[in-house]
Amino acid sequence: MNSKISNKVITYLNKNIGLSYSTIDLGIKLSIRNDTSLPMALWSYSLITNDELDELYNFLWR
Which pLDDT belongs to residue 26? Predict the structure, then answer.
């Protein structure tokens, strides 16, 4: 995933998954630092559950 995260993804994470903006910002920083996608960074640091990861990928792929 590109380091540029769309506002739609940020809004989805906040409104549908329930992450705070500070948690989303942390996830973005971790994904850049570890050169991985935002969903994997959020999941690998236990910021989202497996079910939320699945929801996020479903959102990204539609």
Answer: 97
Q: Write down the pTM of the prediction.
A: 0.88
Structure tokens at 20: 């705070």
If you count them, how many residues does the chain have? 62
Distance CA 33, CA 49 (A): 21
**Residue 36, C-beta contacts closer than 8 angstroms, at least 6 positions apart:** 30, 44
With beta carbons less than 8 A apart as the criterion, state whether 42 and 25 touch.
no
Read off the pLDDT of residues 32-44 as tens digits, 9 standing for 90 and up.
999 999 999 999 9
At 58, list the tokens.
Answer: 């479903």
| Cβ count within 10 A of residue 39 | 22
